[in-house]
Design a protein that fits this description.
single chain, alpha/beta, Dihydrofolate Reductase, subunit A, nine-stranded mixed β-sheet, two-stranded antiparallel sheet, 11 strands, 27% helix, 22% strand, globular, binds nicotinamide-adenine-dinucleotide, binds ligand HJL, RibDG_C, DHFR-like_dom_sf, 2,5-diamino-6-ribosylamino-4(3H)-pyrimidinone 5'-phosphate reductase, EC 1.1.1.302
């Protein structure tokens, strides 16, 4: 795949719908992440792990250039200090830069540092302006500190987009609507764990789910997603006369599209089923 000038064919096929108009009230949404065989996306205490092999990491950067927005939660933004750019792609033969996706961070309480790489890249002209989605705290004490952080981030160059929310988990449906009005036609959501959970719970918005599975094991201390699934096992146990029945979060509208070997990894694509109206 190295040196090639366009995204791999399987990715173009998996994301062919990006060429069509996005839904009226939201961008096209691709949820994507890399995991170990034991479904961990990071190490102990969220330590960043490079799980993807070099070919699938390159594939992820092709995916980035195919979208015009890329979203992460503030947990990832603070922990990994990511750049969310396309730096692994080979230079284009025509000398033009690859399209960069707009970095979008869900950061209700403004934990992001004004000196993070996303802000620095923008101020040194090598990245797009990061958009930070936030919400003002109700308490006046908290609000003063929040206002100071707000001003520092704006002064450093970020664009702050305020939404109404009383929760630390910002409402994805209205954020997607807002992003659409701001011109985002296609959004790649990269994680981390809490944001992946929220996406699965708002799963009708997921048009494509692309999971890279790397042949590694992280072990039980690693970070996994799935924490929002209700553990109703004990209730079901008593009702089922001892049969061990577990609650599953069904995601019926996602159907397997393709699985591709990319270098050392398997990349599994699920797509929204045409038959389910969402
Ligand atoms: N392997 C991968 O592909 C991959 C991808 C991204 C991140 N990661 C890893 O994930 C870890 C970070 O994950 P995390 O769970 O701590 O943080 P996260 O990136 O999921 O951010 C969660 C935070 O975002 C904010 N937020 C606002 N609205 C939200 C919403 N609707 N849903 C969810 N969060 C919302 C909240 O403050 C929340 O605490 C890091 O260790 C990072 O290395 C791995
Ligand atoms: N595809 C993929 N494979 C991995 O092994 C891994 N750890 C991530 N993790 C995604 C997470 O969002 C990281 O924070 C960014 O990948 C860092 O972003 P940059 O590389 O700095 O642009 N993504």
């Amino acid at each position: 795949m190295a040196g090639q000038q366009s995204p791999p064919a399987f990715l173009l096929s998996a994301l062919a719908h990006l060429e069509e108009s996005s839904p009226a009230d939201r961008p096209h949404v691709t949820l994507t992440f890399a995991q170990s065989l034991d479904a961990k996306i990071a190490g102990k205490n969220g330590k960043q792990l490079i799980l993807s092999g070099k070919d699938s990491m390159l594939m992820t950067h092709w995916m980035r250039t195919m979208h015009n927005g890329i979203m992460v939660g503030v947990g990832t933004a603070v922990n990994d200090d990511p750049q969310l750019n396309t730096r692994h792609l080979p230079a284009r033969l025509d000398g033009l830069p690859h399209r960069l996706p707009r970095p979008i961070i869900l950061d209700p309480r403004l934990r992001l540092s004004p000196s993070c790489k996303l802000v620095k890249n923008f101020s040194s002209n090598v990245g797009l302006q990061p958009w930070i989605i936030c919400t003002a705290p109700a308490e006046s004490e908290e609000r003063r500190d929040w206002q100071e952080r707000h001003e520092a981030l704006v002064a450093a160059g970020a664009l702050l987009v305020q939404v109404d929310s009383t929760s630390n988990l910002l409402p994805l449906p209205s954020i997607l609507r807002r992003l659409k009005t701001l011109g985002i036609q296609s959004l790649m959501i990269e994680g981390g764990a809490r944001l992946i959970d929220s996406c699965f719970h708002a799963s009708p918005f997921i048009d494509a789910l692309i999971v890279t599975v790397a042949p590694t094991l992280v072990g039980p201390a690693g970070l996994n997603y799935g924490s929002l699934i209700p553990s109703g096992a004990s209730i079901l146990l008593s009702r089922n006369l001892g049969a061990r029945t577990y609650c599953l979060l069904q995601i019926p509208h996602l159907k397997h599209h393709s699985t591709q070997v990319v270098g050392t990894d398997a990349v599994i694509v699920f797509k929204k089923s045409e038959t389910v109206d969402v």
